[in-house]
Design a protein that fits this description.
This protein is an alpha/beta fold. It has 2 domains: 233 residues, D-Maltodextrin-Binding Protein, domain 2; 96 residues, D-Maltodextrin-Binding Protein, domain 2 (3-Layer(aba) Sandwich), CATH 3.40.190. α8 runs antiparallel to α12. The N and C termini lie far apart (41 Å).
Length: 363
């Protein structure tokens, strides 16, 4: 059911807009294009501009693909529709994907987006909630389909806080930020790239407790598909990942133009406020900061460091109690990535520009 622009602005405190059924198709081409469906894990914010840029710039079109992009409702709700073939590709948190694989869903990560994890618990700075123990006795909101809720047991185990003393409430994803801004809750689980841009755009300061700062180390967002897609349609994987990584590179190197392309691609953003544009701008900046790491610099965009993937699997086993996951080496492949790279000068420029947008542990 679509979320209309006005009602969605109301839900999110006027900082972001989206609809439940985004379908941004590639421009028409002369020969028949292969239709491809992908789902985001969340609302179509600036953290996912690379997908809209890839479409708008024709990076998929030139590879013979016609891609539609749908919004998501949390990483936990990406697994099943991709496994069942409703989507060819989905973006989700790797730890969540591994947990889904342990339940029998046949998913494989085919490209990395965020080697750094932005998952955590966030609150307004004025509440002075800066360490896990501060959450006891407080009301914390979650969307049950999101990766932060899926990984909450890991955070509890890693920090030793008393889960029973935390009043957890659940709500729709679109209502989370509104609830925090309107002070209905003291804190919420979320992804830094989703919540920080929205609060910054309203002039609000944020306190962050990132799961990884308390020992829950993991690779974050990846592109996943069914194993059968890799085995039966490797050329599709290569074309899709190639176009997506070109879009990612474009965003890294052309942030201002990418904001404009994103706004042009998603009609619900067109004619919006300056605050909405800032949400896209900040989201892009955070996404870039989460993706710029030495391993990717060396091996190319989309590369997933095997050691970090193994650490993620260990995190899932240790903190989420998953003991029957498939062998780690079968859950990811770098076969389709690594060809799209930045020059050394480009990397230096991107790192310098994005450093201030990295999530940091509150003190």
């Amino acid at each position: 059911m679509p979320i209309h622009r006005r009602s969605f602005l109301k839900l999110t405190g006027g900082t972001a807009v989206a609809s439940a059924g985004f379908a941004i198709g590639a421009p028409a081409i002369l020969r028949a294009a292969t239709p491809v469906k992908m789902t985001l894990p969340w609302l179509p914010l600036g953290t996912f501009s690379y997908a809209f840029v890839a479409n708008k710039m024709g990076f998929w079109e030139k590879r013979g693909l016609e891609v539609t992009i749908d919004r998501g409702f949390g990483s936990g709700r990406v697994c099943v529709p991709v496994d069942q073939g409703q989507y060819d590709f989905g973006i989700l948190d790797l730890a969540v994907m591994m947990n889904c694989a342990a339940r029998g869903l046949d998913l494989v990560a085919v490209g990395g987006i965020w080697p750094r994890s932005p998952v955590g618990i966030f609150s307004l700075k004025e509440y002075a909630i800066s360490k896990p123990q501060d959450l006891q006795g407080q009301t914390v909101a979650f969307d049950v389909g999101s990766g932060d809720f899926q990984l909450w047991p890991a955070f509890v185990k890693a920090t030793g806080i008393d889960d029973k003393k935390v009043n957890k409430v659940t709500m729709d994803a679109a209502a989370l930020i509104k609830a925090l801004v309107e002070k209905q809750v003291k804190a919420e689980g979320n992804f830094f790239g989703s919540i920080a841009p929205s609060l910054w755009a309203q002039g609000l300061e944020i306190n962050s407790m990132l799961y990884e700062d308390y020992g829950v180390k993991m690779f974050s967002n990846v592109v996943a598909c069914k194993r059968a897609t890799i085995e039966k349609k490797p050329e599709l994987c290569e074309a899709f990942l190639g176009g997506l990584m070109e879009g990612l590179k474009y965003v890294y190197l052309n942030p201002e133009k990418s904001v404009a392309l994103h706004l042009e691609s998603v009609k619900e953003f067109q004619g919006g406020s300056v605050a909405n544009q800032k949400v896209i701008e900040y989201g892009q900046a955070v996404s870039t900061a989460l993706g710029v790491v030495p391993a990717v610099r060396e091996h190319g965009l989309g590369y997933m460091d095997p050691d970090l993937v193994a650490t993620t699997a260990k995190t899932v086993e240790t903190y989420m109690g998953v003991t029957n996951a498939p062998p780690t080496q079968t859950l990811f492949t770098n076969k389709f990535v690594g060809t799209v790279k930045l020059s050394e000068a480009e990397w230096t420029e991107v790192e310098k520009r994005s450093e201030k947008y990295l999530p940091r542990k509150s003190s």
